Predict the structure.
Amino acid sequence: MGNRLRELRKEKSLTLRDLAEKVNMSFSNIATLERGDSQLREDTARLFADFFNVSSDYLLGLSDNRNPVSTPSVSPVQNEALIALYNQTESLTEEQMLDVIKYVEFLKSKEGK
């Protein structure tokens, strides 16, 4: 984790003091994290992940993917509809799936009128 933090800081050409000032943290705390002498707390990991625009998993060394694709949040009704739609369409042909997409686009266009 410390190596990732150091790598991200250097990519932005920031000194330890610069980063400390930007994230409102003490210079010594960041140095301790970079050396691996201290573990990153969840809230601090989120702070650094947001600052460097990477995932917490990347920062913690759990993933090599800096920015995994995030899924949009959906309401429970939307989630239920998506599951039902998936269950109903998984055995369709490619042509039938394209028809489903066209029908959804048609419904959306009707809504705008």
The helical segments are 2-11, 16-23, 27-35, 42-52, 56-59, 76-89, 94-111.
